[in-house]
């Protein structure tokens, strides 16, 4: 009787049997990669803002201190987004006619807030506290990157839990002298590990990895 | 199917109960006389009562949830790839307000009023949203604690059912239109000097409002100001007049009282001083083996109450017997008083001896429901005992205008019927619902040309009025009020009126000229506050929440034993008597639309979402009352099909021509021949939560028999009613869960507490022991101080964003409160001892829940907390199965209201709002722990002992709950855990609970033989 | 056509593994024609129709469950598990007979297994499929449960809690499913080849051909086949014990009185085999009747299975006895109360019904005449299936509903949605079985050939 299958189907079947395995494994690996990619984390994605506020200009150019606008960063959980008032402190004098600043002036006049787009957005079940970090020698740039080089701010890190845990498990790799916390240009020294270890001792840093530290 | 021997299945067989109790040796605790029915069935209906929000499950929310779920399940293909954060916005201030730091709450001192009296509070405000109410430590009526009702006021503020618009004949109108109409109507009144003008308020203690009304009456001399309060303390007032010839306010200092006799007085449960009284009373029950002195409480009561439950000796009697008893005791104290009863002679004798023993460190308290004579007798006895000045003080009445409220309303009704009234302004209150049935106030009001109502809700009274003005909530208004001792609190608003409500001040002001409540109140106090710099004093007053030195001074008054002392009281009535009381949760009905309070298990009956006809076991047996637990959903309940819960026979209660029908509920220790019904239910216009819940007991209430009536007929109606009760079983099965001893036993052998419960050595665990370098949190609960007031339950609900689930779900055992108060009985059903045991997560050292969770959603923290990670939980419910304390709560449905905007404002931003399908439970208020830890670290210091207070601890009036670091031997909690009364619940399982209890000790009078 | 050697004349009708008068041809024909016959019998369509519509219930119930939440079920606090876990354990248990028959009996060289192992294994697979439904959908959030239960390097830096028996379940059940599937498929290959060769239509030739993976029945093929089949049997053997042991640990590791007992593993395994054989009988009896396979599934098979049922039934009975004894012997008030409550409490009827079904009923099998009465066996097997379901109900519900604190006791009953899901899984199970008997040989053709008297001569002419 005639053959149902052509000879080539032998190799085909062999291939499909082993291929399936690799396909499965590869697929899983791919998904894990996607999940860490900036497509999901939205890292390095400059978000459009109602006013094209440039940190590069204000911080990098003019050297405005972080705390001038983010006033509660060392006092509370939230760093604090400046009220329109703060913008107008200067911009009632400088660029007071600039069309790009129209929304700011409008807000000030109409007493309606400017709605900024959130860049660093944690899920609602995560409770992050800025003061706890800033007061223990975790610098702004450690998490936020060189905002002084960002015309429009983007999210530097993945903000995924494994990223948080990395620092909470090895603080010595990231802490810096408290004096340097707001120094956006600070670069870790070559011997960061040792220096870090000393600082961890000095500042008596005990990063907690127990769930209720951030979830409650 | 059969049940335990001696107890037939569906019937509460009291002979069976008796046999059972006789059969058991030693302490036999039991919970409720209800037996489980064994009728497993298969039908179920997704019926749902309206909880705090009125969302049915088949609503858009549900559909959205469905889509979300579907989306999520489709997303599985891409694992977590679909957890991509949506773009959100930040809305900063335009001009930042002073001293507001985003993310840091501010606390403002103000007061919440009930029945006109102030309870001082501190309100937590998150960027302008009040979210939580705490007691004001500087306020005499609070001392930092609160009660359940005050805690729930925050839900009352955000209640979406509050009336939102000013209406006239149902049409929306503007405030100015109203003012014009009012002024127009007042035109003729000017001529008639206001002869046709009447103002009806609740009890008023506000000096400002009183002044305003007095000024108004100056303009309209013929006008009248009436006050009515359904649960008014007229008898106490009349009693004072009887005894002293003038109205007085009696103020007690239970902290000094060694012996307390309550004549039907529920001073721990109701009344403006209750919170303070619990604190003082409990302070005398925190005994140690070194200092084993404690007070002794005798309660003679005609119903059930938390006070009676806390008594060392309790005598349940008929309402009409109390006076006879009082007279007997008075006579025993050698007062020239006639008509004392001859019964209970030995009790009276021992009692008298005990009262005298303490030379003045004893006190007699008469209940608001008792006739004036009893109050007068109490005054006489206190004077005779030399208690005045030590345990009791008399001051002028705290009400701005002390009147007999009932008489006042009666006069108003008479005037209305006589068509003497053209303009009636009702400032707060709901008289149409709460007035005695025989007044026919609704009919009388029809005769008034212009009727104006100011109220939080568009309620029964609003319905009868031409104009309804939405009232501003206590947390939205400028006002002032006096506490039980007269201390004034100037109330400041926490938030601008959500629905443009007006305060009574503003409405009264509008008679002359529109003025803001702020100006009215401030002007008054500018005139009345001493001090050089009024503005600074004003700021201080607002900051402190009390006006210093406004507490009323003591008065010197002496009792004149008048005719009343000699005339014998009418002989105790034959037949059944009915007792009417405000509901322990929803009061006189004003809180009927508050889901937290509706779902709050009532202190002794553990009923939710209902009132019932409470009666003694014997009476229930005589009536052949059947109580079953139904699970097959084929039950008609008020036309509604309800699936699960406890069904009880409905009884008809008839007084003269007035009748009500309600489910019978058996309460051990309830006086014989008496039924108790609670007021406040059966509302028709309360709102979506309160409408149609329970039956309206006001229908039974006549002006002649406000608190109790005789000649009552109680008959089975043949119908059954389904009640949601949070308890299921009455027997403790002889388990040693609730440890208690008599003071004698305890003095002899402090270790008695630990007998019959061994704790296995800690090493007996497969898993390595946890190490704690830093803190290790723990809690101690004093069962001897706890009076079962439920403040902790509501406080927890408020602090932790706990949803309300509704009657049906409670009936299924799906209530969500993280802390519950278990109530146990000991002894004979007709006169048992009652004990309360608050149960919350024990945060076990060897937690059975932790090992079994497959995804590690509940884990042990480095500070000993048993953490519940909602966002990790997948909801296998394995942890709950394995929890011996059953303190875990599961979101079987989407219980949380994710839609109603006002409720979103109410939530505590520091606590995750749980969604469907996750387990939750007590966290020891970890958000508070974290806040303090971060603060202390930022300030480079250690956390101080007592710095962290859990919500339940902070609310507890009895200071029965103490939280702290058990790693620190000096901490308060460590010291308490070291005392002999300390024991762990189910410690024999080697769970090693961090929450431990201090055993209860009863201070029995050795001379009194106990039943 | 080799006529059979009459060497089995002395065999009585009762201990015969295959009726006389069969040769390779007849065996192959009878079995393969069930699959290859032109027109499907009407009965098949009716049966399939019913099963299929019941299966729809499962989908409806599940959709509703996802829409509303777990609340539609009867579960509550304190009874956190109900029908979900009852049915899970029940289904998993049923699977065991298949593995036992295919693996252990193979290693023990029990010839009589050959005519029943194929559909017993199929039954195992389908039962596991039904069981698998519950662990996923009994969770409050299935959409995360399905992958959070898996250990993989995730962005949360978290692993599952390996101390939890539920995680052990995940591994146990998935392994079980995989191995059983492999075993079943490998066993099918030679028969698939037969079907390929005998199929009339091209389509079926191709389909069976692909499945047969180029089987030509060469000596080398047979050699490889034998090796792998034995290996898989070796792999499957421990699973017979391990899977239900681990399932039993879900309870044994808990502190709940009535769960916390070391006897659970053996007594669960015995129970599983008990239930499994009951189900095999429940399926075998109608199958042989409907397709006239009495010649292949003889009374000896039925009787052997009956014997195993009886044996395991007695072990289970011993388990119940020890539970009661230990409750008393341990002097633990909670245990003592638990057992008293089981016997006299709200669910007493379930308990006594279970005793009736699982302890009393199997003892009838001592009598040979009952043991060999087909209708009676069928009834008994149904009774036992019910009994085993009740056992799980009693263990889970009566233990949970009254545990330590009387203040939080409750009562449980399944809702309409609980029942819908249960009936739905039954539908799924039967549907799969119908498809199986229609499209695959329900009895292993080539293995049947090996037990033919003529097989001894190694006669290889297969047509």
Keyword list:
B: 1011 residues; 8-stranded mixed beta sheet; 42 strands; disordered N terminus; C: 463 residues; mainly alpha; globular; disordered C terminus
Structural summary, described in words:
The complex is a heterotrimer of chains A (216), B (1011) and C (463). By secondary structure, chain A is mostly helical. Helices cover 42% and strands 1% of the residues of chain A. Chain A has ten helices and one strand. Chain A has helices at 9-36, 38-41, 55-61, 66-69, 84-91, 102-110, 130-134, 140-144, 161-169, 192-202; one strand at residues 116-117. In chain A, helix 5 (84-91) packs across helix 6. Chain B has 1011 residues and is an alpha/beta fold. Chain B is 26% helix and 20% strand. Chain B has 30 helices and 42 strands. In chain B, the strands form twelve sheets. In chain B, strands 21, 22, 23, 24, 27, 28, 29 and 30 form an eight-stranded mixed sheet that branches. Chain B starts with 13 loop residues before the first helix and ends in a 9-residue tail after the last strand. The relative contact order of chain C is 0.18. Chain C has 463 residues and is an all-alpha fold. Chain C has helices spanning 24-36, 42-68, 83-107, 114-137, 142-148, 165-198, 202-212, 219-252, 264-290, 299-329, 333-344, 348-360, 368-371, 374-401, 416-439, 445-450. Chain C has 16 helices and no strands. The model of chain C is unreliable at 1-10 and 456-463 (pLDDT under 50). The termini of chain C are close together. Chains in contact: A-B, A-C, B-C. At the A-C interface, helix 1 and helix 9 of A face helix 7 of C. Strand 1 (116-117) of chain A pairs antiparallel with strand 2 of chain B, so a sheet runs across the interface.
């Amino acid at each position: 009787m005639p053959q149902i299958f052509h000879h080539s189907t032998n190799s085909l079947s062999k291939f499909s049997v082993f291929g399936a395995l690799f396909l499965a494994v590869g697929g899983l690996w791919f998904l894990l990669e996607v999940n860490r990619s900036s497509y999901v984390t939205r890292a390095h994605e400059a978000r459009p803002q109602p006013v094209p506020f440039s940190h590069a200009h204000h911080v990098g150019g003019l050297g405005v201190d972080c705390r001038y606008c983010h006033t509660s960063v060392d006092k509370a959980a939230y760093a604090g987004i400046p009220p329109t008032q703060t913008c107008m402190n200067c911009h009632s004098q400088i660029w007071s006619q600039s069309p790009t600043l129209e929304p700011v002036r409008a807000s000030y006049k109409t007493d309606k807030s400017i709605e900024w787009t959130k860049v660093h957005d944690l899920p609602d079940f995560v409770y992050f506290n800025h003061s706890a970090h800033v007061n223990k020698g975790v610098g702004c740039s450690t998490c936020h990157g060189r905002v002084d080089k960002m015309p429009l701010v983007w999210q530097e890190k993945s903000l995924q839990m494994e990223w948080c845990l990395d620092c909470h498990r090895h603080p010595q790799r990231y802490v810096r002298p408290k004096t340097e916390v707001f120094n956006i240009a600070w670069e870790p020294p070559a011997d960061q590990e040792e220096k870090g270890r000393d600082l961890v001792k000095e500042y008596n840093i005990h990063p907690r990895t127990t769930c209720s530290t951030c979830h409650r | 199917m059969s049940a335990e021997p001696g107890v037939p299945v569906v019937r509460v067989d009291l002979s069976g109960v008796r046999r059972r109790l006789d059969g058991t040796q030693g302490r036999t605790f039991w919970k409720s006389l209800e037996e489980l029915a064994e009728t497993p069935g298969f039908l179920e209906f997704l019926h749902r009562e309206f909880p705090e929000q009125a969302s049915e499950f088949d609503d858009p929310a549900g559909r959205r949830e469905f889509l979300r779920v579907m989306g999520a399940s489709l997303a599985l293909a891409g694992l977590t790839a679909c957890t991509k954060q949506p773009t959100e916005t930040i809305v900063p201030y335009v001009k930042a307000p002073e001293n507001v730091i985003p993310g840091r709450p501010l606390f403002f001192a103000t007061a919440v009023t009930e029945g006109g009296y102030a309870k001082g509070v501190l309100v937590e405000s998150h960027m302008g949203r009040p979210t939580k109410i705490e007691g004001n430590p500087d306020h005499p009526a609070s001392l930092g604690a609160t009660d359940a009702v005050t805690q729930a006021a925050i839900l009352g503020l955000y209640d979406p059912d509050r009336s939102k618009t000013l209406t006239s004949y149902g049409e929306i109108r503007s405030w100015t239109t109203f003012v014009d109409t009012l002024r127009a109507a007042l035109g003729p009144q000017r001529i008639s000097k206001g002869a046709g003008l009447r103002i009806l308020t609740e009890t008023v203690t506000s000096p400002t409002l009183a002044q305003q009304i007095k000024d108004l009456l100056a303009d309209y001399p013929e006008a009248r100001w009436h006050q009515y309060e359904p649960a008014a303390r007229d008898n106490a007032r009349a009693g004072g007049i009887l005894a002293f010839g003038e109205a007085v306010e009696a103020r007690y200092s239970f902290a000094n009282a060694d012996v307390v006799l309550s004549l039907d007085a529920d001073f721990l449960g109701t009344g403006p001083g209750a919170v303070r009284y619990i604190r003082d009373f409990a302070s005398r029950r925190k005994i140690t083996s070194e200092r084993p002195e404690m007070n002794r409480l005798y309660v003679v009561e005609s119903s059930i109450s938390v006070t009676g439950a806390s008594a060392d000796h309790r005598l349940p009697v008929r309402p009409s017997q109390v006076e006879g008893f009082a007279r007997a005791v008075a006579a025993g104290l050698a007062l020239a008083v006639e008509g004392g009863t001859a019964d209970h002679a030995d009790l009276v004798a021992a009692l008298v001896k005990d009262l005298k023993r303490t030379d003045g460190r004893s006190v007699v308290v008469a209940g608001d429901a008792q006739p004036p004579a009893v109050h007068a007798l109490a005054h006489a006895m206190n004077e005779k005992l030399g208690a005045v000045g030590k345990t009791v003080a008399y001051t002028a009445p705290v009400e701005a205008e002390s009147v007999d409220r009932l008489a006042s309303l009666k006069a108003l009704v008479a005037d209305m019927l006589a068509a003497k009234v053209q303009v009636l302004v009702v400032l707060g209150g709901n008289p149409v619902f709460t007035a005695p049935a025989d007044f026919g106030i609704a009919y009388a009001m029809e005769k008034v040309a212009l009727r104006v109502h100011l109220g939080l809700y568009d309620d029964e009274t609003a319905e009868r009025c031409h104009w309804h003005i939405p009232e501003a909530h206590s947390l939205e208004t400028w006002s002032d009020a006096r506490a039980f001792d007269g201390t004034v609190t100037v109330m400041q608003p926490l938030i601008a009126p959500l629905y443009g409500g007006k305060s009574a001040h503003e409405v009264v002001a509008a008679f002359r000229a529109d003025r803001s409540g702020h100006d009215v109140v401030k002007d008054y106090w500018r005139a009345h506050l001493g001090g050089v710099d009024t503005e600074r004093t004003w700021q201080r007053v607002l900051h402190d929440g009390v006006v210093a030195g406004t507490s009323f001074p003591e008065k010197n008054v002496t009792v004149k034993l008048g005719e009343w002392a000699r005339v014998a009281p009418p002989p105790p009535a034959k037949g059944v008597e009915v007792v009417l009381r405000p509901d322990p949760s929803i009061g006189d009905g004003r809180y009927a639309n508050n889901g937290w309070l509706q779902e709050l298990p009532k202190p002794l009956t553990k009923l939710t979402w209902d009132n019932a006809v409470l009666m003694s076991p014997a009476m229930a047996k005589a009536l052949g009352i059947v109580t079953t637990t139904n699970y097959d959903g084929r039950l008609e309940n008020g036309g509604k099909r309800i699936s699960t819960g406890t069904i009880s026979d409905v009884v008809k209660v008839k007084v003269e021509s007035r009748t009500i029908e309600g489910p019978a509920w058996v309460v051990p220790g309830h006086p014989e021949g008496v039924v108790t019904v609670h007021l406040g239910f059966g509302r028709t216009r309360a709102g979506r939560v309160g409408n149609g819940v329970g039956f309206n007991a006001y229908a039974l209430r006549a002006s002649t028999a406000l608190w109790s009536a005789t000649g009552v007929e109680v008959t089975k109606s043949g119908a059954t009613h389904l009640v949601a009760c949070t308890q299921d079983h009455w027997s403790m099965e002889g388990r040693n869960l609730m440890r208690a001893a008599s003071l004698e036993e305890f003095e002899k052998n402090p270790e008695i507490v630990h007998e019959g419960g061994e704790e296995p050595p800690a090493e007996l665990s497969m898993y390595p022991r946890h190490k704690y370098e830093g803190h290790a949190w723990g809690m101690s609960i004093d069962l001897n101080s706890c009076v079962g007031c439920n403040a902790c339950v509501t406080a927890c609900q408020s602090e932790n964003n706990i949803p309300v689930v509704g009657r049906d779900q409670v009936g299924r055992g799906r209530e969500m409160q993280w802390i519950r108060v278990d109530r146990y009985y000991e002894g004979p059903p007709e006169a048992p001892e009652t004990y309360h045991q608050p149960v919350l997560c024990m945060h076990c050292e060897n937690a059975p829940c932790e090992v079994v969770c497959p995804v590690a959603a509940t884990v042990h923290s480095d500070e000993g907390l048993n953490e519940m990670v909602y966002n990790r939980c997948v909801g296998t419910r394995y942890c709950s199965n394995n929890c011996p304390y059953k303190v875990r709560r599961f979101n079987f449905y989407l219980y949380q209201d994710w839609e109603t905007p006002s409720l979103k404002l109410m939530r505590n931003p520091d606590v995750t709002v749980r969604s469907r399908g996750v387990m939750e439970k007590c966290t020891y208020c970890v958000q508070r722990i974290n806040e303090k830890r971060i603060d202390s670290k930022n300030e480079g210091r250690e956390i101080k002992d007592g710095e962290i207070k859990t919500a339940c601890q902070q609310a507890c009036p009895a200071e029965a709950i103490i939280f702290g670091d058990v790693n620190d031997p000096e901490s308060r909690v460590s010291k308490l855990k070291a005392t002999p009364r300390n024991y762990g619940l189910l410690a024999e399982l080697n769970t090693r609970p961090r929450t431990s209890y201090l055993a209860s000790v009863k201070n029995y009078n050795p001379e009194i033989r106990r039943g | 056509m080799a006529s059979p050697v009459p060497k089995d004349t002395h065999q009585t009708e009762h201990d015969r593994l295959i009726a006389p008068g069969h040769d390779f041809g007849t065996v192959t024909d009878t079995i393969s024609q069930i699959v290859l016959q032109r027109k499907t019998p009407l009965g098949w369509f009716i049966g399939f129709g019913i099963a299929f519509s019941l299966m729809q219930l499962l989908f409806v119930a599940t959709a509703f469950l996802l829409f509303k939440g777990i609340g539609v079920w009867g579960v509550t606090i304190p009874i956190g598990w109900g029908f979900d876990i009852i049915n899970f354990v029940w289904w998993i248990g049923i699977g065991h007979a298949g593995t036992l028959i295919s693996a252990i009996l193979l290693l023990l060289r029990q010839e009589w297994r050959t005519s029943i192992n194929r559909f017993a294994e199929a039954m195992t697979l389908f039962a596991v499929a039904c069981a698998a439904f519950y662990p996923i959908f009994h969770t409050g959030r299935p959409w995360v449960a399905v992958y959070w239960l898996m250990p993989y390097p995730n962005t949360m830096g978290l692993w599952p809690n390996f101390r939890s028996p539920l995680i052990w379940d995940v591994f146990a059940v998935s392994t079980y499913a995989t191995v059983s599937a492999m075993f079943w498929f490998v066993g099918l290959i030679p028969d698939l080849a037969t079907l390929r060769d005998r199929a009339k239509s091209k389509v079926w030739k191709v389909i069976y051909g692909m499945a047969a993976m180029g089987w030509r029945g060469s000596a080398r093929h047979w050699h490889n086949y034998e090796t792998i089949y034995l290996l898989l049997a070796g792999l499957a053997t421990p699973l017979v014990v391990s899977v239900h042991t681990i399932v039993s640990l879900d309870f044994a590791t808990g502190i709940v009185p009535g769960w916390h007992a070391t006897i659970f593993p053996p007594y669960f395994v015995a129970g599983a085999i008990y239930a499994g054989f009951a189900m095999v009988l429940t399926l075998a009896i109608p199958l042989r009747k409907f397709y006239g396979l009495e010649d292949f599934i003889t009374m000896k098979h039925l009787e052997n299975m009956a014997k195993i049922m009886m044996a395991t039934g007695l072990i289970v009975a011993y388990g119940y006895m020890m539970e009661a004894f230990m409750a008393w012997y341990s002097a633990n008030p909670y245990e003592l109360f638990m057992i008293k409550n089981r016997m006299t409490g709200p669910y007493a009827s379930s308990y006594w019904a279970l005793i009736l079904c699982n302890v009393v009923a199997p003892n009838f099998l001592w009598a040979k005449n009952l043991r060999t009465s087909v209708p009676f066996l069928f009834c008994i097997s149904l009774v036992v299936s019910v009994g085993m379901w009740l056992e799980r109900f009693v263990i889970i519900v009566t233990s949970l509903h009254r545990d330590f604190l009387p203040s939080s006791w409750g009562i449980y009953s399944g809702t309409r949605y609980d029942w819908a899901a249960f009936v739905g899984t039954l539908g799924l199970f039967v549907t799969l079985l119908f498809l199986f008997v229609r499209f695959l040989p329900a009895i292993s053709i080539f293995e049947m050939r090996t037990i033919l008297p003529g097989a001894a001569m190694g006669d290889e002419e297969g047509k």
